[in-house]
Aldo/keto reductase
Amino acid sequence: MTGLEHRLLGANPPTVTRLGLGLAALGRPGYINVGHGADLGPEKSVEAMRANAHAMLDEAWAAGVRYFDAARSYGLAEEFLGSWLETTAHTATVGSKWGYTYTANWRTDAEQHEVKDHTRPTLERQWPETLAALRRTPDIYLIHSATLETGVLDDARVLARLAELAESGVRVGLSLSGPTQAATLQRALEVRVDGVNPLSVVQATWNLLEPSAGAALAEAHAAGWGVVVKEGVANGRLTARATLPKPITDLCARLHTTPDAVALAAALAQPWADTVLSGATTQQHLRSNLSAVSLELGLEELDALQDAAQAPAVYWQERAGMAWN
C-alpha cells in the first residue's frame, strides 16, 4: 500500500489524506468530464456503474486514500460509497453535499441533469436521504455550489439547521462554483448563528486555469477552516486529452510526467490546501493522478505555471459549454 500523508481538515478533526477521491463522475452515467462516456464504456447500467465505482474505491483504498466525497446530485454516488464502506473493516473520512437534486433518470441525454434549491425543505429532505444512502453520518456536509444569488448564506432557517448539525459533530460548510467564488467565500466567513459561525469547511475549484479563489482560500484556512480543492484538472481540460498551455507542456516534457500530475501537484503545493480531489473515472487515470503526490514543484516551476491562467469569466463560460457525456 502507498502511504499518503494525513492532516487535520483545517484546525480541527477529522483528518483527511492529501489526495481524496470525488465520486461526481462515478455515480451517474452522464457527466461533463472530457471523455467521461468513453471511459465508462458502453455498459452504463446501475449494476455496471456500481461495480466500476467499487473497483475505483478499492484502487484508491489500496493506494492509501482515506477521504471520499459525494453529493445527493451525483446519481447513486452516495449509495455506491455506502455499500462499499460496509465491505471494509477500515474507517474513512466521508463528505457529502446537499442543495441539488439529480433529475436525469440515468440518462446521458437528459435535458436537465440536476435542479438546484438551497431552501430549508430541501435540506430537511436530503439530510436523511444522505444518512440512508451512506449508511452512516458524513463527517463533512456542504451546501452544494453556494452562491450569493441563492441567498442561502442569509437564510436564517437554513443556517440554524446547519448550526444544529455542527453542534452534533458534523463539520458543515459550502462548496463553491463560478467566477465569484471568492466573494461567496468572503460572505460565508462572516456568517453567524448566535454569535458563532457554524461553517468551517470550503470546497472550491482551484486549478492552473482558474486560480482566482486562492487568496480567499488562504484567508479561510488561516481562520481555521478546512479547504478541499475540486476540479484540479478542470474536468479534463488539464489532461493529455486537451490542448494545453505551453507552460504545462514544457514542464511535463522536462519532468517526464503527465499534465494531470502537474496540475494536481500544483494544487497540492498550495499551503492552504488540506486535500485535493481526484475525479478519476478509470483506475489508469487514478494512478496517474496519484503520481502527483510524489511530484514536488519548486517556486520557479510554480511561477512559470501561473502563465496558464485564464480570466475567470472565460474559464467559467467554457466550463458551462462543456457537454454532458
In short: The chain has a mean pLDDT of 96. The chain is about 35% helix and 20% strand. Residues 12-320 form a domain with the TIM Barrel fold (CATH 3.20.20.100).
